[in-house]
Amino acid sequence: MNVTTFRAFKSRNYRLYFTGQSVSLIGTWMQRTSVYWLVYVQTHSTFMLGLAVFTTQFPSFVFSLLGGVISDRYNRYHVLLVTQIASMIQAALLTILVLLDHYSIWQILILNVLLGMINAFDVPARQSLVYDMVNDKEDLPNAIALNSSMVNLARILGPAIAGITLEHLGAGICFLINTASFAAVILSLLFMKLAKYVPQVHTKKVLAELKEGYNYLKQTPSIGFIILFLACTSFLVLPFTTLLPVYAKVIFEGNAAIFGYLNSFIGLGAIGGTIFLASLKPDINLRKVLFINTLIFGAGLMLFSHINNLSLALFVAVLIGFGMMSQTTICNTIIQTTASPDMRGRVISYFAMAFFGLQPLGGLLIGSISQYMGAPNTLLMEGIAALLITLLFSYILRRDLIRKESKSID
Question: Within a 13 Å sphere around the CA of 82, how many CA atoms are in the beta-carbon half?
Answer without folding.
Answer: 14
